[in-house]
């Protein structure tokens, strides 16, 4: 970098709060501004970071409306941001993305611009895909010499880095890049009874799980990546996947997700999929919400007040940032790769990252799902700060070298982040 890194992080929810707690341990940045619509929430995140490293003057709080690109740009200029880190839900991707560009800053996010279902047919045909609005502006970012790094959370993010690693180091030919995500997490009330409380934004869960999931296949592409995308009905093709480190078998189903939209652009594979271990209870709840119209984002009038049904559902559930003390178990994000290994023999390998909630709560005061998401953009920013990662345009993590990321993530502290990833060989 030509000047010290100054990060403007927009969003002080669960992931943003965890990212600040992780970042405060690192020395690669000059300033880290936590901005949120609710200034008090941003101030709480700053206070939590400073508690971990006594009175760290690099951290400060600010107020911003993430839906207003001009406001984001103005704040980025005011604080001298070199990088705008988007830590809010995907509704606000485009204003923050645009605001970062207008301010002359680089940009990172963990979820891409929203999709729009094809108007003529709900399944098979794709409409506006995840990330299309951002990728359409790639030339603009290239011409400006700026970088927008999309989908650098855990999924998308770490799974995409693992895909690049598999292609570079493990496989000569890839039949399928299959992101597989599962957990054995349990949330309990004060009496020890299991309760329903999603570990991540319910707004985002509804968006991902009730939209038609996208799959990519080379045969359909015919040399044009865009032609290889197609959709299936929600919850399609259930399979039981055996997750490592004691999590065990979990039923996974197709879910709309960014990996499928990113991986085929930079990695050769015959098929790309994403399946998530939702569980019977979550699937039942999502179907009920859809039946009742409570998944809608269109405002309805209730006693003279306009409100989005989906916002009401999200507001009625516990804040994911607060459920850590009542959570037990582990979460696993990973990529199941099948094909032909470097030795010419059939190969099936699961590359993965597991986080135990007991560990993330003990070490960071953050529940494991948000912590696992938050660590990856913090690692990416460090690689960008020291020049190990660089680029211009609108890129996915697959476009950048994977080994430095994986090495830094796994290396013991203080050199690295002390969060190792694993690899299991399965029967081809």
Automatic annotation (TrEMBL):
The Saccharopine dehydrogenase-like C-terminal domain sits at 153-410
What Gene3D superfamilies does its record include? Answer: Dihydrodipicolinate Reductase, domain 2, NAD(P)-binding Rossmann-like Domain
Per its UniProt record, what InterPro entries does this chain match? NAD(P)-bd_dom_sf (IPR036291), Sacchrp_dh-like_C (IPR032095), Sacchrp_dh_NADP-bd (IPR005097)
User: Saccharopine dehydrogenase NADP binding domain: from which residue to which, for each copy?
Assistant: 7-148
Give the matching Pfam families: Sacchrp_dh_C (PF16653), Sacchrp_dh_NADP (PF03435)
The UniProt entry, under PANTHER family, shows: CARBOXYNORSPERMIDINE SYNTHASE
- This protein is called Saccharopine dehydrogenase family protein
